[in-house]
Amino acid sequence: MKFSSMFLHTLKEEPRDAEVVSHKLMLRAGMIKKLASGIYSYLPYGLKALRRVETIIREEMNAAGAQEVLLPGVQPGEIWKESGRWSLYGKELLRFIDRKGGEFALGPTHEEVITDIVRDEVHSYKDLPANLYQIQTKFRDEIRPRFGIMRAREFIMKDAYSFDVDDTHAEKSYEAMYRAYENIFSRCGLKFKAVEADSGPIGGNFSHEFMVLAATGEDTILSCSECSYAANLEKAEIAKTGSLDFQKAPSGSFEKVHTPGMRTVEEVCTFLDIKPANLIKTLIYTTDKGLAAALVRGDHEVNEAKLRRVLGCETLELADEAEIEKSTSAPRGFAGPVGLKIRTIADIALTDSGPYVVGGNEQDYHLKDVWLSRDAHTDIIDDIRNALEGDPCPRCSSGKLEAIRGIEVGHIFKLGTKYSKAMNAMFLDENGELRPIIMGCYGIGVGRVVAAAIEQYADDAGMVFPESIAPYPVMVLPVNVTDSHVMATAETIYSELKRRGIDTIIDDRDVRPGVKFMDADLIGVPYRITVGAKGLKDGVVEVKERSSGTVERIAPEAVAEYCISRLKDVGNKY
C-alpha cells in the first residue's frame, strides 16, 4: 500500500479527551474515530489490526473443533424472559420496542440466542458435543464508557458456546478452550496470565479471565509469590485458618459514646483515637432476597461478588437512605450490628469477635467495646472482603499474595445447566431419558486485544505492535522520493515483499524524512526499511526493528528473505 493513497491521517498532539495510552495512540494513529460516547468507527489502519487478531482467533477456534456461525444483533425479549435475565441483567441491556409493540434488545451477549437454536436442533446424545462461535458486534449500555475501545458501549467480541452430555465432557470442552485461548494470546504476542474469576451476570459456577499484564491495566490481579494461584480482585480468596466461630467474649457490656456528625471511618477513628482495624463497618444492601447487612473491618472493603455468592442472590446493591433508616433507625454512617434484625454476614477477619467500635443505630452515636459473640447476632461468617497484597495465599502455606495490574481480554465460563434448564434445551441420553445439556461459554474482546497490545508495548514514540497483529508488518521508507535511484530500489524491495506475501507500506510521500520516521514509529510498524542515497553507495539499506531499536545494514536483494525469517507467526500470513 502506498502511504500517499492510504486513508491514514496522523495527529501530532494528544487528543484532549483521551485517558489511557491505547486511546491516545489509536486516535493519533488514525485507527479509530469517535462517533458518540463509547461508540467508535474503525478506520482502515485500525481494521487491519482487528482482522489480524480475528484471523488468529478463527484458526485456533477451528483447530479446537469449534464451528463459526453469525447470530442476530437484535434479540427478542421473550428468550431473555425465558432465561430470567430480562429483569436481572440491568441497565446495560439496551431495550426497545418495535413498531408492532414487541420488546427487543441489542445483544450484549448471545447465550439465549444460541440456546434457542440448539434446543431446536439437538435432540439426542448422538448430536453432542457441539461448539459454535461467532465474531460479532455487541452492545452494552455502559454507565460510564471510558478508555476508548477498552470500555466501549459497542464492541466486537468472539463468543463461543459449548454443549455437552455431562460434566466430564463439559470439562474437556472447557480445557480445549483454555488451551485455545493460550494459543491465541501467545500468537498475538501478548504477555498474559489466566486467573480465577467471578462469573458475574453471565452465570455459571467457575470461570477464568485471561489478563494481559500492563502497568496501565484497570484490573487488579492477586498472584501467589510461591505457587500458581492467581485470581482477579473479585474472586481472590482469603486463606481460612482456624475456626470460623467467634471467640468467646469476656463478661461485661459495651459503652455508648456520643459521636456528633462522625459518619466516615476516618472521622470516627480520629474522634475516638482508634485504628480502622478496631472498627466494624456495617453496610446495608438490598437484594432479591431482602435486606442484608455485611460486616467488615474499617480497613477492609466489602467484595460484592463474594457477598452475592454467600447470600445466594441474583441482585445486590447498596441500600438507599430510606431503607437504611428503616432497618437501623439511624441515617447512613451510624449503622451497627447490635440489635440489627436483618440477615447479617460477618467477614472471617472478625472471628476474634472484639472489642470493636460499631455504629450505634442511632444518629450521632457509636458503641465501644462491642464483642460480636456477646452483643450481636450474625447469621453467617464467611470471606466477603477484597483480598489485599500481603495476605496469605489460600492455596499454599508459604506464599503471599502480590498485586499486579492487568487488562481483561478473554473470559471463559462453565455455565452448567443455567440456560438449558431455564430454556428447556434437553436431549435424550443413551437410556432414553431426557436430560439438560451442559453448557460453557467463551468470550474474547477482539478490539481489547489490539488495545491491550498497545498498552503493553507502547513507548514514548508511539505504538509497538507485535508482528502477528501489526496492520502492516513492514514499511519501506525512501528518504528522498525525488532521487530516482532511491525510489527505484525502494519500489523493487516493496514489490518483492508483496510478491512474497508480506503486507507492506511504501512511504512515497514527498515530505521531510523526520516526518516519515515519526509516523513510522507512531503507527508501530515492526520493521522499517530505510532506503537512502548514502546507504546505497555502500550497497545497503537499513532495517530497523521497532521493538528493540536494533538497526541492521542489509543488501537490498536480501531484505525480503530477512523479513520473512523475522516474521514469526506463519499461521497468520501477511
CATH topology of the largest domain: BirA Bifunctional Protein, domain 2
Poorly predicted parts:
none
CATH superfamily of the largest domain: Bira Bifunctional Protein, Domain 2
Shape descriptor reads globular
CATH architecture of the largest domain: 2-Layer Sandwich
CATH class of the largest domain: Alpha Beta
User: What's the pLDDT, averaged over the residues?
Assistant: 95
Query: What is the number of independent domains?
Result: 3
| Main sheet: strands, sense, barrel | 9 strands, mixed
The tally of beta strands, per DSSP, is 29
- Cα-based radius of gyration, to the nearest Å: 29 Å
Structural class: alpha+beta
What count of helical segments does DSSP give? 15
Description:
The chain folds into three domains: about 15-235 and about 400-455, BirA Bifunctional Protein, domain 2 (2-Layer Sandwich), CATH 3.30.930.10; about 255-380, YbaK protein, CATH 3.90.960.10; about 470-565, Anticodon-binding domain (Rossmann fold), CATH 3.40.50. It is α+β, with helices and mostly antiparallel strands. Helix content is about 25%, strand content about 25%. Helix 2 runs antiparallel to helix 5 (about 165-185). It has 15 helices and 29 strands. Strands 3, 7, 8, 9, 10, 11, 12, 21 and 24 form a nine-stranded mixed beta sheet that branches.
